[in-house]
Structures are given as structure tokens and as C-alpha cells.
Amino acid sequence: MKRRLNRSGGWASAVTMFALLMTLTPNAVAQSRAAGPHTTVTLLASRDSLAGGERLSIGLQFQMEKGWHIYWVNPGDSGQPPKIEWQLPTGFHAGPIEWPAPEKLTAPSIVDYGYENEVLLMAPLRAPAQLKPSASISLAATVNWLVCKDICIPAKARVALALRARDPQQDKASSSSTLFVETEKSLPRTAPANWQITAISEKDDFVLTVETGKRETAATFFPLDAEQIKNAAVQAATPFSRGVRLRLQKSDGLLKPIPVLRGVLVLGTGRAYKIAAPVKQTVR
How far is CA 39 from CA 2, 56, 59, 63, 136, in A? Predict the structure, then answer.
């Protein structure tokens, strides 16, 4: 049986807690790459330099040993997503993390949502309007994450990266630019405005209907909010001429009606979309 961090934040036993906390990685000397338990974390940028008022992407690349994983923003039945605290120069602002569509991580009786092997968690960064040419710009982040396999191990590290201010007419992609481009392509898109997306609340299930204008052979729904659907339940997909219909079993922890079912829908093509389905209540 796997020992995992549950939603209350407690460990399965005091012995397990002590053993895992002893492995906690202390704050590392600021560097672009830090090694944690079964994980390497690297702070990257899409360009090596930037001009005043520009926006670029920064991100944390997690590389996990085989069989180990970290978690999505909604971790599923257990776990915790990575937490990032940015340390940025005055006038710089980082936006929220842009989460790639997760994988289902299946264990007996539970399903988690997360990433294996490698993932880049990107965030937009905007520079202040005025930057002194050729000035060095120091970016840093303190990262807390949970890496799991048969056990879960908490880790913490501090990583940093130096960029340089430049003239607006100059531009230089970083050695990591291809990774950012590929990650950008894989991020869930906003569902097209002409799609019809609705959900009906039945006694034990949500029936999610997505009309894309053509038959969709398969679909998987990843809920953005916890305790709405039973993560380990089979998602029965029924294709029809204009889209697909999913039957999602309600979570035992869902105690009151919800107005919107939010999440990421991955279609049979592998393309992921952010959706927000208004829920029609049929059960009182």
C-alpha cells in the first residue's frame, strides 16, 4: 500500500512523518539548478535578455527519476502541487503558473493528477517600463514540492537566474527557448466560443456534454476543483455526431450543488481545452 500525503496534510503515521521530514532538502545556495529527492529543478527563461516593458516566460523545469511524479494544481485523491514564491527585482511582476494538462496517476482505489519524467511550469514575467541598459537582472524562486512513488517526500530549494537588460531593438532567445515553445503548444487552450458546453447534475453523476461541431471519439475530464467528481471512477464517454458526452460520478465529498464544473478536457486527438460548464440542477 502506498503511503501518501492526504488532504488534511497529515502522514499515515508519525514514524513515516519523521522519516520523510529528515529527507527534506534545505534551502540551497541560489543557483539555476537544484537537486532534490529524486528530482532536479531548474529555473529557466525563454530569453537571455529583455527590454523595459517587455514580457517573457520564466519557468521551473522539474525532471523526475523514473517512476516518480509531482502534482497538478488539483492533485486528485492525494498529494500537493508545487508552490513557488518568486523573489523579483522592484517593478517586475510574475503571473500565475500555466499548468500543462496532467496525466492520470493510478494506484489501488485512488487516482492522482500530475506529471512524470519531466514538466515545465511556466509563468509570464513583465519588466518595468525603464531598465538600465546592460544591467544584470537577478530572478529567484523558493520552490516547495512533493515527489512521490511508493512514498511521498517533501522537498524545498531556492533557485536563481541572471538575465541582462538590452536595447528594445535587440533580441536573443535563450538555449531553453525551444522547450518554452513546445510547452506553450501543449498548454490547454480556452475552448472555442462556438462550442456548446453544459452539464446536468443527476443524483449520483454529472453528465457533461461538449458539442464541438463534429464527432469526438474519446474524451477525459480533469476537474480543476477538488471533491467534485470521484477521480478513480470510470468516465463513460459517449460520442455523438456533434461531440461527446461524459458521465462523471460525483465525489462522496461533494456536499452541496455547484454552479459550474471547471476543468481541462482532453479530446481523443490529445488536444487539451479549458472548460467551464454551467451545471443544471435536476436533483433537489
Answer: 19, 26, 16, 6, 29
